[in-house]
Amino acid sequence: xxxxxxxxxxxxxxxxxxxxxxxxxxxxxxxxxxxxxxxxxxxxxxxxxxxxxxxxxxxxxxxxxxxxxxxxxxxxxxxxxxxxxxxxxxxxxxxxxxxxxxxxxxxxxxxxxxxxxxxxxxxxxxxxxxxxxxxxxxxxxxxxxxxxxxxxxxxxxxxxxxxxxxxxxxxxxxxxxxxxxxxxxxxxxxxxxxxxxxxxxxxxxxxxxxxxxxxxxxxxxxxxxxxxxxxxxxxxxxxxxxxxxxxxxxxxxxxxxx
Length: 258
Hints:
This protein has a single domain, classed as Rossmann fold (3-Layer(aba) Sandwich), CATH 3.40.50.720. With 258 residues, it is an alpha/beta fold. The chain has helices at 21-32, 44-57, 71-84, 108-136, 158-177, 204-215, 227-238; strands at 12-16, 36-41, 60-65, 90-93, 140-147, 183-190, 248-251. It contains seven helices and seven strands. Helix 1 (21-32) packs parallel to helix 2, helix 1 crosses helix 7 (227-238) and helix 4 packs parallel to helix 5 (158-177). A seven-stranded parallel beta sheet has the order 3-2-1-4-5-6-7, sandwiched between helices. The protein is 44% helix and 16% strand.
């Protein structure tokens, strides 16, 4: 990007959950500024599509399966990325899931899967990348894709909201621990976004939950942003000059005009 210090160009980035949606858009946007981008997700076939889009945008892609819930998978992914692209400079923690349901009706397995994927997974990936950055004393960016559910609890998305509020607390703590190192910990908090994130949801449930969201002022309108809008925010955060830190960016759709 024009006007940015040369030191911020040509970095190696990792994007988790990059097989579609926000993760894919972020990876392509980073490729568009000429970076090397390692994309990881459980859906390996779709990762190859993401990698091709990164290459088409001008980046250097590397696709490798990744399950952030499994430490062994994380280690294999990061080791392979280091061999293929070099040490990681930027990590975008995007992998996440949401299962709608009333708190008392959701299964133990559903609660566990949400917390493991959305909170523990990013913690496990981040600790490895940060440890390497600190050992190298290298400048790094750790970005956490969060949700406005972290600050505006939504009925039937309770555990999801908990996972994101926990993620934001972790990001803030990481920022404090990184003050003696050139590592920036940033949150990109996302409002309603048009992706395939909820494709597996029972659509009849929306008719039940929307009135509850409207009752509590959570669902004020039905406009959405797109994955590219979120990607633009991420690029802004990680390409800021070395003396600039953006702790939090929130991306929300503009209400409809009358």
